[in-house]
Amino acid sequence: MLIWxxxxxxxxxxxxxxxxxxxxxxxxxxxxxxxxxxxxxxQIHLLVRCCIFVLLVFALAGLxxxxxxxxxxFLVLIDKSKSIDEAAAASAEQxxxxxxxxxxxxxxxxxxxxxxxxxxxxxxxxxNWRTATxxxxxxxxxxxxxxxxxxxxxVLLSDGNETGGSVMQFIQENKEIPISVIPLAxxxxxxxxxxxxxxxxxxxQDEPFFVEIVIQSNTxxxxxxxxxxxDKNILTENKNIRKGRNVFRFQQTAEDVQALKYSVSIKPKxxxxxxxxxxxxxSVSAPKPAILVIESEPAKIRDFAAALQEQGFxxxxxxxxxxxxxxxEMDNYDGIIFSNVxxxxxxxxxxxxxxxxxxxxxxxxxxxxGENSFGLGGYHETPVEDILPAKCDIEDExxxxxxxxxxxxxxxxxxxxxxxxLAKEAVKSAIDLLQKKDFIAIVAFDHASYLIAQLQSMxxxxxxxxxVSTIEAAGGTNVYxxxxxxxxxxxxxxxxxxxxxxxxxxxxxxxxxIKAVQKLTNAKIxxxxxxxxxxxNTLLQNIAQKGKGRHYVCVSPxxxxxxxxxxxxxxxxxxxxxxxxxxxxxxxxxxxxxxxxDALPPLLGNIVLEAKPTAQIILVTETANPLLLRQRxxxxxxxxxxxxxxxxxxxxWLTWQEFPKFWSQVLRNIIRTPEQRPxxxxxxxxxxxxxxxxxxxxxxxxxxxxxxxxxxxxxAVIHPDGSSEETxxxxxxxxxxxxxxxxxxxGGYELQTVFQYKPHDEEDAEISVFRHKRSLSIxxxxxxxxxxxxxxxxxxxxxxxxxxxxxxxxxxxxxxxxRKAKRNVPLAAFLISAAALLYVFDVxxxxxxxx
Length: 851
Description:
The chain is about 25% helix and about 30% strand. It has about 850 residues and is an alpha/beta fold. Helix 1 (about 20-35) packs antiparallel against helix 2, helix 4 packs parallel to helix 5 and helix 10 packs parallel to helix 15. The longest helix has 22 residues, at about 40-60.
């Protein structure tokens, strides 16, 4: 509409003013038709006819006169939704009656719920319109019926519990309209409602989980709860219902998880509405947990692997060479298990990746006991020890037996440089691992044997280390005299454990080594050997085998200290217990759910370890040493079982009926959930249901933490009736995508998102695809949910709009907003009437001879 700011007139259709120049044409034409009249009479006729034309053009153009009016109109919005009971309705009726008497015809009354109605139509049609509350729609309707020339003042009678629209959005768009609020109280009648049924998303087959039933009540009562899975009744139980929020948990196991639908119905003893006594929850299937099992001799734990497969795990079993060498490859597994596999079979980089896999990627790690596990397996002071819930070396010296050890070190010319330095560091590290009551001797050899430190107590550790530092490389290689000197030294010891560690990097001169080793074993002295580089590993392995020790092949000199530390711990045998014991529960745990702790079978041995302060100890031995323990590590978890799952120590467990269930529950307590899998970590989806629509938000980031932009994503929705639709995700911010779909039908909805994107900085890279499945259940309308009056919103409505909160009818009527409304008076009728009068005058003028 064109507004003339300096005049009280405007035109509704000013385009018709373009006809005004035609008055000059009319003047010419009319002049020819009046040739029989006098000049003065012709002039009057022409003037009258031009005025008629101009008046008609102004009428067509919609000439309107406007002025400012302070007249008020009150639009009273009355909430008639289902959440308003008889008492609240009576309170609203009392107010409206009072206000009608004061305001008279200046008040318009508009009932509303899901949609607004007029007073005349409120009792027509069905009652479904009362199953929602949309205050915004009611106010927008009120604007359409308000008088244009009056100042509007809204009066809202409601409990403020919106289930559709947004009254605050209306206020933002209509800031000059005051809204006074009369809050209506919610029902005080006994009410019990199923608030929600919580079923975990992405349940794995054969995995135990909990169905949570949340019941809201405003009274103390009893209720019969029935839980169904599809059409199968799971349970029916009577429960006491407290006032407020009640949560009931029921454990279930997914036998077939293509889709799970759990429904709950309740029959409360005291209740008002039945519409909110039923609800359902949905879940969809997830891939089986992928577990990597590494064992030095895989055939020995096939029963263990088969038990896990029986429990729904996807097992990959092999030796150390199948451990991934990149974090991305390791991320394909939900859990990794080490069984009696030494650290030396992995690179230092792999052990560091394993730590990151648990801490950063949320993976689960389990180490089983054996002679090549923990400190015996060389894991002391490695990244793996950092994540374990137990220390790989025992600090309690009272539990250790004293040992007499002789370290025999090759000092030939080929050991010069870095190898010699590393060998000396290894000897010093071995000294640090021994206890004060132990004894040690150091022998070095080239073509001859040299006693660096005679057998003595570890009280002299610093002096022995200083002597080791003097060893220099030179000469040839002759092992035999060195072994003989070691024999002489260890014969002096009065200890149960006597051990030699022999290190060499070359080929020794010939000698009767079998006889030499036999002499050692007769004296109950064991021998282990370490071959560095191009050493005579055949000879060294024979010496270790005959000497009842272990042989190590050291490809890289850098691993010498690690091997010496591992062998020092192994030789002491202080951490191995090979006496039968009965396990006992140390604390309640989900691991033992459904398992009688008193029925745990005996074990024939274990590794004695010390728990870290952060560990949760689940099982212990008869001597209270930790048997099964776990701890959280960053985003993941790690566990330790100090015995084995093989016939050596665990033969009784292999035939135990609960063996598969026990290990299934151990693993499920440490492995990551489906939500922690790679795709789920980088693509976080949220959902919100409101006013018959589901709003979805997807946040997408890559492994480096950068937003994924320009992705192409589709959402497929299967509705409760089996129909389907597909919609597109729209990017609304960096890394953020949104979509929505209509969900007005009660029932279960299955959703599948397919998201395609290109990795950052990789123009030639293949398109990556993320697929996500989830489900949701739409239950009864939100109108039937138990809610208190939303006083906070109602106060905000009054304050933001400049109205009153909880005023009297008189206060509202007397309210002066100081606002004026533009009152428009269309002049078309007056103009047409004037044109008609002038036309009559023009006709009469023709018949009168007055000029």
